[in-house]
Amino acid sequence: MNDILKSCTLCPRECKVNRYEHKGFCGETAKVRIARAELHMWEEPCISGTKGSGTVFFSGCCLKCCFCQNYEISAQGKGFELTEQELADTFLRLRSMGANNINLVNPTHFVPQIIEALDLCKDKLTIPVVYNSGGYEKPQTLELLRGYVQIFLPDLKYFDTTLSDKYSKAADYFESAATSIHKMAELSGKPTFDENGIMQSGTIVRHLVLPTHRKDSIELMEWLGKNFAKDEIMISLMSQFTPVYKAFDYKELCRKTSTFEYNTVIDAVNKYGFEGFIQSRTSAAKDFIPKFYDEKYY
After folding, report:
1. Bridge partner residues of 199 (DSSP)
2. What sections of 66-199 are H helices per DSSP?
3. Which residues, listed in sequence order, are joined to residue 276 by a DSSP beta bridge?
């Protein structure tokens, strides 16, 4: 499977770089790099619960979002290398800490290595694996994860191609994300939960409401409502936008999302009766951005 890294086409960029010799569009070679692996309490309640989600933050990214809260690792190269065995050991470490799941954050460009790591430990893992991504995926790559991932947690960022090109350098974002979310829902099946309300399988579609762009958010909710049954997926609506990184290059992004903007999108979600989560307005703060590391620290 790792032969795909010789001419990488894992993400929609299809840069075809030999990642054994050079960095791909994502900024990463064939060597796995992460910047943090810890219990995380700030995911959706059915993901974090009271014990926490075992999050592994991967370095690099196939998107170029100007407002990325994790820009230190997605764009600025922070992180440290792990072998596939060390990655497997990291998954087991998180399980031993009581994690409800293994939460792979921004994993797209390391899918073959993640599968190898899961093969090394999946018999001992005994908790669900979460694929937590920006939504910019290829169904062919997602298919590789069949039987390995139980929960998908994709973003659905934009409907308008002009916005996705402007803010994330991906004019084809919606086309790719829409197709991939259908694939995720097919792979995961309908949401299921254990006796404590912790998710065991299913897809939660996340959307961050951007300032000045509530109409684009409403169009996304309309699309979801017309393409998925209300029990087929869940929706997590986020209000945590805080200007960071290159967001300040755009006047319209130099503020937090207003209560009015957020509430109009909530109305659009409620129209279709989806189960899910509405984020508290107090979540829009830099304090919720975790600490990242350049060297292995555990």
Report:
1. 193
2. 71-74, 84-96, 111-125, 139-143, 161-168, 173-188
3. 235
